[in-house]
Amino acid sequence: xxxxxxxxxxxxxxxxxxxxxxxxxxxxxxxxxxxxxxxxxxxxxxxxxxxxxxxxxxxxxxxxxxxxxxxxxxxxxxxxxxxxxxxxxxxxxxxxxxxxxxxxxxxxxxxxxxxxxxxxxxxxxxxxxxxxxxxxxxxxxxxxxxxxxxxxxxxxxxxxxxxxxxxxxxxxxxxxxxxxxxxxxxxxxxxxxxxxxxxxxxxxxxxxxxxxxxxxxxxxxxxxxxxxxxxxxxxxxxxxxxxxxxxxxxxxxxxxxxxxxxxxxxxxxxxxxxxxxxxxxxxxxxxxxxxxxxxxxxxxxxxxxxxxxxxxxxxxxxxxxxxxxxxxxxxxxxxxxxxxxxxxx
Length: 345
Ligand code: PHE
Fold this sequence. Notes:
Blueprint lengths: L6 H14 L3 H12 L4 H7 L6 H41 L3 H8 L6 H15 L3 E2 L5 E3 H4 L10 H5 L13 E3 L5 H9 L4 E10 L11 E11 L4 H16 L5 E8 L2 E10 L16 E10 L1 H6 L8 E8 H9 L6 H4 L2 H4 L3
Parallel strand pairs: 1-4
Antiparallel strand pairs: 2-3, 4-5, 5-9, 6-7, 7-8, 8-9
Helix pairs in contact: 1-4, 2-4
Phenylalanine binds next to strand 8 and strand 9.
């Protein structure tokens, strides 16, 4: 037979092509070429019929042996290529989560939330309960019951976000946590020792010292025989407990419709420790919030006898406190959520 068919050469060439196939597609093509119906090997097998019987058997055996050798090589190559392609696909699909983890680690509470938690802990340690209330309020809770008459200028000072619900300008995002005073006075048994933290809203453009959505914490105490000295003492005790030694509190005259007398609550400037600097405009003091004795008119609005009960309230901005405590020149970092800022706390 095989005069014209150099079987050994055919075998070597086929094995080399199989070995060099770069991908599965190429391998399929090579397989067609070397084993397919028109391959030299198949043609050689077909031409066996023209050989004498004894030669035919011999030559047939050799061709079959070469064929199965090539088939085995193809199978081996196919497994290797499949494995390589699978690995490449996995590599391409891989989401490298370790990069995020290694850089940032797990998340944590926002600085404002951490501060709110700390404040609650301090007040709970002083014997206060924590109460939360709605951020959407009615005019009555936010203003009217707190002794802000309609068209009172102090309402304009708290530019409100009104909601299109019910009568015009009757439903709003609360402008302070003080409506919680009214809610507690209406629903709690006396005496009351409570703090009320939460989010508040005013129509202001965000700047270095303001945010349109901000946080306050408010305290309300109502009992028999509460005096201004209790107010001042509580504020001083809180200031010491929260800021530690070296930071004191002081009260200056103030004015709020729902407290009488009213005061502004100030603490030693935490930047210069009272010596006077740019942050405190050289005064050594920083204003944190308002306070005062519950106005008898408020007691009247909620049906509490002002002859028997008296009380005080104070409230201040948590964001402002964070700014002062950590020396942030611009409050807007608290709402931008830049991870490089947040991860520092
Ligand atoms: N609600 C007042 C404000 O937001 C602060 C305040 C609270 C004043 C409690 C007196 C008593 O400005």
